[in-house]
Write a structure and sequence with these properties.
By secondary structure, this protein is an alpha/beta fold. 37% of the residues lie in helices and 24% in strands.
């Protein structure tokens, strides 16, 4: 074996959640991913824009409580971006994804709550950089009536956690 050969051992999963206007959308998508997809991230990054930064402590606490209910406690980090800055969002999230992959994590991103400019900036930048996102999650709702409540209180027939990578045939 060559001395310059090394292998990064998988550290587990990392989860990036894009927070926009709805804390319920982010928290419920996270709960759905744990329950329906079996993901158990070792690290969770909440990425939001400045106008929504005040919501991050509530979201972080909800993620901690839900995670503990599934028997684990992830490290939770927060990244605040300038409002509606497509380019900066792309740079920041591309860098975050690259760093997590370099650390040996499989990276999932949840776009459910993210505002369009942040979602587009993130996905375009990650794609152009050729980074290996394992999952792109989205909690699809058939209606938005009466859904500002915990995941388990919303009828399952009106919501479905989607993995865009899986749906596109990129991942099994």
């Amino acid at each position: 074996m060559s001395s310059d050969f090394f292998m990064i051992t998988a550290q587990g999963d990392a989860y990036i959640a894009l927070l926009g206007r709805s804390t319920w959308a982010l928290v419920n998508a996270y709960h759905a991913v744990l329950r329906e997809k079996g993901l158990r991230p070792k690290q969770v990054s909440i990425v939001t824009e400045e106008p929504y930064a005040s919501k991050t402590s509530t979201v972080a606490e909800a993620i901690r409580i839900i995670s503990e209910g599934y028997g684990f406690t992830p490290v939770i980090r927060v990244e605040v971006l300038p409002e509606a800055d497509f380019v900066q969002a792309g740079r920041t999230i591309r860098s975050l994804v690259a760093d997590l992959i370099q650390q040996g994590f499989y990276v999932a991103i949840d776009i459910t709550s993210g505002r369009k400019v942040i979602v587009a900036g993130a996905l375009i930048a990650v794609s152009l950089a050729g980074l290996d996102l394992r999952h792109i999650y989205y909690l699809a709702m058939k209606t938005t009536d009466n859904v500002a409540k915990p995941y388990m209180m919303i009828p399952h027939q009106i919501q479905k956690i989607r993995d865009i990578m899986e749906d596109a045939g990129v991942r099994p």
